[in-house]
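User: Hi! I have a protein structure encoded as tokens and I'd like to know what sequence might fold into it. I'm fairly new to this, so please keep things simple.
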């Protein structure tokens, strides 16, 4: 499962839609950047992308509230104004009159843009709790960040599918953005999207149906990502979950194989992961699948050699003793026979070329368990 877009590269070329006649595009971008805190409050990649596009913001924020998935927005106080930036539906609910924002948001999101709404209000007294103070706002515009899908993501999806691994996308982005990014990456059946709210309201039976029929899950909170991973495991999938942020950490830990992607946001994801991709190249997942299957094939070969050879020796010794009245071979002879009969087959297994078995071929312990990679 791929988790946060499909690990898109740095956002470039923001689309700016001013909704207030007092602001032009440059003014809207500067206002959005003013809503970003300083220091650790600028850790989120979206905040960094906005600041990079606008140029460094002058001065320090008097107060700031960093972005959190459960909250859906960030806020900062600069020069007597409280500026809020975040998910359009969350910010609009805190505005006096946002109008019908949904069509504009869908239009931008359908282009694969990560859409943010920007709003503000005067803040003369420096409210202590910015989350509570972020109300009665004036909507100033929309910012669309163009997340380009890495070429390695496209190649990884294609190669994972060829290897028999089902690929799903789980993200906190807008449904239209998630659909567009998944289509760009080549994820099959990307036209069907389930939102976090729909998944949370669904019964266990409906969730089981959703994870069978749906490849893209959008607007997921960290808790909903955990529920999605749990539903996939209950459906019998052997699951790998990738992620690069703190919002993915719990789901990564719950998956059969947690995969952290090294990056600026990833300490929590790396700590929760079973393995870490250090070069941001998702085709390493394909290498890992191949290595795992080859190792399992070699274990099967080694067990076959050991069981087959030793079973024959045990049967010969037991039957010889039963019919002859004494052991047919002494201890040293038995050890020599064991060495000679095991050594050459073991060497053959050790030097043989890797043999990556198909995911559901045969009747091994993973037979009947579909493999799924959930990319965030």
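Assistant: Happy to help. Inverse folding works backwards from shape to sequence: for each of the 376 positions I chose a residue that suits the local structure. Here it is:
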């Amino acid at each position: 499962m791929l988790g946060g877009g499909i690990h898109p590269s740095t956002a470039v070329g923001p689309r700016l839609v001013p909704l207030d006649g007092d602001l032009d595009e440059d003014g809207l971008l500067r206002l959005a950047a003013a809503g970003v805190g300083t220091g650790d409050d600028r850790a989120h990649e979206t905040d960094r992308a906005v600041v990079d596009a606008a140029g460094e913001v002058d001065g320090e924020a008097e107060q700031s509230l960093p972005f959190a998935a459960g909250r859906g927005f960030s806020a900062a106080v600069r020069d007597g104004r409280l500026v809020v930036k975040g998910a359009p539906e969350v910010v609009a609910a805190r505005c006096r009159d946002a109008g019908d924002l949904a069509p504009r948001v869908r239009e931008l999101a359908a282009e694969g843009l990560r859409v943010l709404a920007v709003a503000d209000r005067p803040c003369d007294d420096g409210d202590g709790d910015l989350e509570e103070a972020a109300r009665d706002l004036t909507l100033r515009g929309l910012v669309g960040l163009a997340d380009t899908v890495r070429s390695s993501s496209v190649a990884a999806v294609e190669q994972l599918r060829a290897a028999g691994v089902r690929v799903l996308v789980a993200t906190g982005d807008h449904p239209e953005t998630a659909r567009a990014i998944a289509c760009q990456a080549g994820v099959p059946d990307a036209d069907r999207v389930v939102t976090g709210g729909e998944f949370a309201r669904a019964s266990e039976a409906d969730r089981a149906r959703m994870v069978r029929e749906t490849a893209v899950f959008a607007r997921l909170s960290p808790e909903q990502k955990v529920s999605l991973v749990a539903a996939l495991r209950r459906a019998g999938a052997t699951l790998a979950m990738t992620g690069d942020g703190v919002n993915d950490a719990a789901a990564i830990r719950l998956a059969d194989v947690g995969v952290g992607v090294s990056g600026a946001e990833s300490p929590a994801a790396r700590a929760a992961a079973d393995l870490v991709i250090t070069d941001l190249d998702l085709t390493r997942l394909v290498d890992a699948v191949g290595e795992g299957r080859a190792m399992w094939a070699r274990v099967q070969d080694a067990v076959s050699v050991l069981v087959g050879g030793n079973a024959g020796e045990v049967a010969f010794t037991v039957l010889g003793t039963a019919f002859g009245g004494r052991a047919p071979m002494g201890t040293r002879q038995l050890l020599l026979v064991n060495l000679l009969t095991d050594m050459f087959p073991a060497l053959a297994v050790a030097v043989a070329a890797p043999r990556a078995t198909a995911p559901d071929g045969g009747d091994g312990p993973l037979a009947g368990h579909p493999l799924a990679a959930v990319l965030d």
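A useful reference point when you look it over: The first helix runs from residue 25 to 34. Feel free to ask if any position seems puzzling.
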